[in-house]
Amino acid sequence: MLGRYGKIKVLKDIFRKAIKVYQVNQLTRCMEQLVNINSEATMYITDVRFERWAQAFSPRKRYNLMSSNIAKAMNNAIKACRELPITRVIDYIGGVLQHRFYDRQTSTGKLKLTLTTKADVNIGVKHKNARSLTVYPITYYYFLVKDGDLDGTMI
Hints:
Layout (H helix, E strand, L loop, with lengths): L1 H4 L3 H12 L3 H14 L1 H9 L22 H8 L8 H24 L7 H14 L3 E4 L5 E5 L2 E5 L1
Antiparallel strand pairs: 1-2, 2-3
Helix pairs in contact: 2-3, 3-4
């Protein structure tokens, strides 16, 4: 697509956005914009199955698109040293990684539980709320759970 119709900058930008979006409704919006700009290009890419190029229809992780943004974080970290010779850049990257791992190790060393602080708070809130529930057995496998206005059947 970019080889045939890539000279139109707006078309190229919207197509690249359509490739990367995760939700089908966002992809639909991008496709509508593409139709308005160049319907021939839109027909060309819809002839190919969406699963082959669109992240929104991909049944699995697609290359690095669902990564944790480590590459962007590293690019930001080494932005200052890009003009240095390669050996200095490698030393700088090593120092940055050592510093980050040290910070992470010391912060996790302070934890007294195997869970993170946020997970521990969430579980504590759910546990506190669960202690106020009243459970009535209906059958051997079904129970009626009552909590104020919220009533439900649990298995």
